[in-house]
Predict the 3D structure of the following.
Amino acid sequence: MGERLMRGLLLALALVAGMAQAQVQVRDDRGRAVTLPRPPQRIVSLLPSLTETVCALDACGRLVGVDDFSNWPATVLALPHVGGVDDARIEGIVALRPDLVLLSSSARALPRLEALGVPVLGLDLKTLGDAERVLRTVGHAIGVDAAPQWRRIQSGIAAAAAGVPTSARGMRVYVEVGGGYAASASSHVGELLARLGAANVVPGELGTVPRLNPEFVVRADPQLLVVPASAMAEVRQRPGWSRIAALREGRVCVLDPQEGDVVMRPGPRLADAAGVLARCLGAPRTGRLP
């Protein structure tokens, strides 16, 4: 009887130890410690960069829902789309029975999901440092080593930098996000430009993505404009921008929608973003004023 009791006790201890080992403890960008009973298998992502991060860690198959703007890789297009940062459809998310929701720490949905008992990680993505930290945080949460992926990203950025012509070093660049918002020197785009040897004309002190007075850019007189194709028509009509030599002379790199997504999203495609920007520095496609 004593031997059977001892075996039962040892089995119970082993089960408890196994459960403790399966638990995942992770701290999000709010400084909040989140304990998951096991690596999540039903993930909802509410930010394109976070969706891409999960997939870059070979866990695309664990996604059960994404935000309305997630479109890469192509497999996520078939998933339920449940809104965006400011208009997430809470009922739709809960119906997917997620064991983890990844979203911006400032998203309106975050406190509502927490109140419903849904595990969430609030994450911030604005800089290269943020991208590395979030990659490692998500990797830890889902039980995947993110270090090899980050090394590949760094290697890709370095390769892009090596391909920038010497004549483009120090080039003053303005990067339009859209609607008069620009990527500053403190954004991931600005940091990539610095790695490529270029200079962002929008100082980081203004914030990562500030909205600028059109005259600011005229005075800054960038040597190259990087503009999403969707913003070109509006850019041409801005007051005073006809005085910008780069626009008059066609030193404009116009990003198609796919390139725009790659460049503007601070996620695992940073090496691709560096490649796009390097090509812009070497051979901008014309957006010349008529």
Q: What stands out?
A: The mean pLDDT is 92.
